[in-house]
Task: inverse folding
């Protein structure tokens, strides 16, 4: 008996390819120098990227890799922190998510980039097995740049 053909993956609106988290850095997240601890920042990055991957795939997703993380400047207690995650390309079951972090004084309103990285997530089914995700094809120059392995 032949296995049933897998149903096509429905198209996903491009608006589901991006997630933003925004909040104030609290004293519980800083080190002795008054700057956000790198581990706290990496947790925020993982949570933001997970939300993006889950929204895009409609599935639970697991972190497979974190690459090219760049800590450009510190985040201070009281800073407004803005994390933006977006799908930049997909494989059959994987999603490459670029995360950029900006922070600054909320009274000034100008946020500067502090960190960025690229993460890969794999969507899994109820049994924990990799499952196909909707295709994302970079269209704009910015999307193509972020999808490049050279970032």
Result:
């Amino acid at each position: 008996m032949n296995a049933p053909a897998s149903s096509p993956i429905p198209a996903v609106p491009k608006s589901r390819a991006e997630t933003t988290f925004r909040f104030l850095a609290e004293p519980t997240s800083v080190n002795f120098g008054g700057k956000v601890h790198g581990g706290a920042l990496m947790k925020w990055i993982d949570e933001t990227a997970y939300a993006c991957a889950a929204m895009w795939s409609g599935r639970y997703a697991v972190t497979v890799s974190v690459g090219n993380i760049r800590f450009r400047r510190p985040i201070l207690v009281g800073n407004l922190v803005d994390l933006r995650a977006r799908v930049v390309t997909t494989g059959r079951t994987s999603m490459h998510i670029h995360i950029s972090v900006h922070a600054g004084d909320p009274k000034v309103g100008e946020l500067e980039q502090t960190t960025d990285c690229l993460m890969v997530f794999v969507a899994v089914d109820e049994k924990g097995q990799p499952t196909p995700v909707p295709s994302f094809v970079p269209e704009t120059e910015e999307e193509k740049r972020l999808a490049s392995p050279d970032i």
Observations:
- Strands lie at 18-24, 60-71, 80-90, 94-104, 112-124.
- Confidence is low (pLDDT under 50) at residues 1-5.
- The first strand starts at residue 18 and ends at 24.
- The two ends are 47 Å apart (CA to CA).
